[in-house]
Amino acid sequence: MLKIHQCLGALCALALAATLHPAVASGAWPQQAVRLIVPYPAGGGTDFSTRLIASELSKRTGQEFIVENKTGASGTIGAQTVARSAPDGYTLLVASPAEVLVGQIAGQKTAYDPKTDLLPITLVGETPLAITVHPSVPAKTLPELLALSKSEPMSYGTPGVGSTMQFAGESLNLVAGTNIMHVAYRGAAPAITDLLGDQIPMAIVGMPPVINLHQTGKLRIVAVTSERRSSVLPDVPAVSELDGYAKYRFTNWYGIYAPKGTDPAILEKMAQWVGEVVRQPEIKAQLQQKGVEPVGNTPAEFAQFLREERERYEAVQKRSGIHIN
């Protein structure tokens, strides 16, 4: 009888193990290299931050965390790669709002649904957008800039239609009652080039590429779009400081995602590790130097953040009609 019970127990254990994800069934993850898919070219801000974190995770776990750059179709090729990967915790996505939120709201067609095909793990960090003007523009503050735009025609450049930056600009138009015309470029670099050449008076771009230009007087950042001032440029006010703009917040954040079906234990473990890494003083300092404010929250907190962001962007889209043709 004892032998029968032992056999039944062993069979039950085997059956249970078969239903579990391999990493959980074996009691450990990771047991092999983990791929972090970055849907942008090497050398950019997200790529730098991801490589910094990957190096620390490799040291911490004894397993390699490999950064792979899969570009194309405005970042959606990389996101699609992860969405179609096995949910085993060994292929993860590092993405910005464009691939997992803003593009979909602006009508971009993708072969995956970011709401259902990707699971949020952790918000790595946020980078403010910079409302930047050419030095020839007489306005020294955002209120002065908005007042100037009401007295003469003005335009602002962004990296493209349906970008986070266009949403920030159109939200500003809606709140301020202005009609600053949007000029879409194919990326931040050409927008900044035209701004430097005084071809456009104003641009809304990610903060990192214009920090040095602001500090050297070649351009002027009149405000940042984050909830608080940036630690890199503490003298530049946040839009939210103005009366009537308390809820104004647009950042170029990036987070880590897994394919749907990935075991929650893996999500929690990865989130914990990333949070611990980005809060290390030396890592935090390196990220902040690049304009990134580290976060490193839990999957539940990141999911709530995404819900709030979706509501914010959908409200702007509904009122402004932003749409990717």
Automatic annotation (TrEMBL):
Residues 1-25 form the signal peptide. Keywords: Signal. The keyword Signal applies. It holds the Pfam family TctC. The keyword Endoplasmic reticulum does not apply. InterPro entries: BUG, Bug_dom1. PANTHER family: BLR1237 PROTEIN (PTHR42928:SF5), TRICARBOXYLATE-BINDING PROTEIN (PTHR42928). Belongs to the UPF0065 (bug) family. This is Tripartite tricarboxylate transporter substrate binding protein. It comes from Allopusillimonas soli.
